[in-house]
Amino acid sequence: MIGNEWDLILESEFKKEYFLNIVDFIDREYEFKTIYPPYDEIFNAFKLTSINDVKVVILGQDPYHEKGQAHGLAFSTPEGRPIPRSLKNIFKEINNEYDFPIPDSGCLKNWARQGVFLLNTVLTVEEGNANSHSDCGWQIFTDNVIKILNEQNQPIVFLLWGKQAEKKKELITNPNHLVLITSHPSPFSARRGFFGSNHFKLANEFLKENNIDEINWKLD
Hints:
- By secondary structure, the protein is α/β, with parallel strands linked by helices.
- The chain has helices at about 5-10, 10-15, 15-30, 45-50, 85-100, 110-115, 140-150, 165, 200-210, and strands at about 35, 55-60, 115-120, 125, 155-160, 180.
- The chain is built from nine helices and six strands, in the order αααβαβααββαβαβα.
- The strands form two sheets. It has a four-stranded parallel beta sheet with strand order 3-2-5-6.
- The mean pLDDT is about 95.
């Protein structure tokens, strides 16, 4: 399904009744409604960042629900699409920390390929209807994914932005990992802690301390 080590790690998860119910539900949704991201991009975060490569986890909520914006990576948009406001604020914070220029593209695949696992807690959404798939079972699946990541010995940085992401803190109990929490980068809350949080530098400092290659947050 995915094409890397996640397939073996999640093999038993894919056979559980709740996950089979998710598949039945979204198959019907994709048949009769407009659902994002495209069906073959639902697991892009997993395809681009194998479990053995995960260095940083950034948790989003559910995919963008407007045409052409979602492609299976939290906060990311495909090349050539307008940059959503939350992502603009992420770029502003990186600019504040590193003085990197704010990019013209919102595609974060380069981060994913470096080991930034861009995971939404819900992996699909109906067009124009935010959180429409939040109760179909996806959160059970992604909670279990976070638990699996928590069990990894290699140190991982978890960036939890906003109240929904912060709830996942209780799933991260391994002292090998670093959990950083602040407000969501949305225009409504970015000034309540996200701006000035220094999360991108703090993540890299932690990776460096653990002899792990740092993330190049610059997007060309």
